[in-house]
Design a protein that fits this description.
Blueprint (H helix, E strand, L loop, with lengths): L9 E4 L6 E2 L9 E2 L2 E2 L8 H4 L5 E2 L5 H9 L7 E2 L16 E2 L2 E2 L6 E3 L5 E6 L9
Antiparallel strand pairs: 1-2, 1-10, 3-4, 5-6, 7-8, 9-10
Length: 129
């Protein structure tokens, strides 16, 4: 079952080396216990998705230039995501302001050949044993 993405969520990129926080700006009215719920509109590079450490994609111009300068040895550079569109929802069951909510199974493509996904939705189910 999908979980809604809230404040404290983290994402990863297949070309990055570290998780990045998700900053929610599209909704400030629908809340969970942790804070506002994200929508697929929370997909801007610097505003909504933080840097993923170092980028290893040769499609990234900075990585390509550094690798060329190192005579072909892959030289990772700082990873600032450049989303190619919005998050792709797997099911649009919950809508806020006409936009589907962001869930932990959504994905987004980066213009530099990476795939961005949610690793921690920011909310956790606690069960008693």
């Amino acid at each position: 079952m999908s979980q809604l993405v809230t404040t404290g969520a983290q994402a990863v990129c297949t070309m990055g080396q570290a998780p990045a926080p998700i900053n929610i700006t599209s909704n400030q009215t629908v809340m969970t216990a942790n804070g506002p719920v994200a929508t697929i509109a929370d997909s801007a590079g610097a505003a909504n998705v933080g840097p993923f450490g170092m980028c290893m994609s040769l499609a990234n111009p900075a990585v390509a230039a550094a690798t060329a300068a190192a005579l072909g040895v892959l030289t990772p550079q700082p990873c600032m995501p450049v989303p190619a569109g919005t998050w792709i929802p797997t099911s649009a069951k919950v809508i806020i302001g006409g936009k589907p909510c962001l869930t932990n199974d959504c994905k987004m493509m980066c213009a530099y050949a990476g795939s961005i996904s949610i690793v921690s939705p920011g909310q956790f189910k606690v069960t008693e044993q």
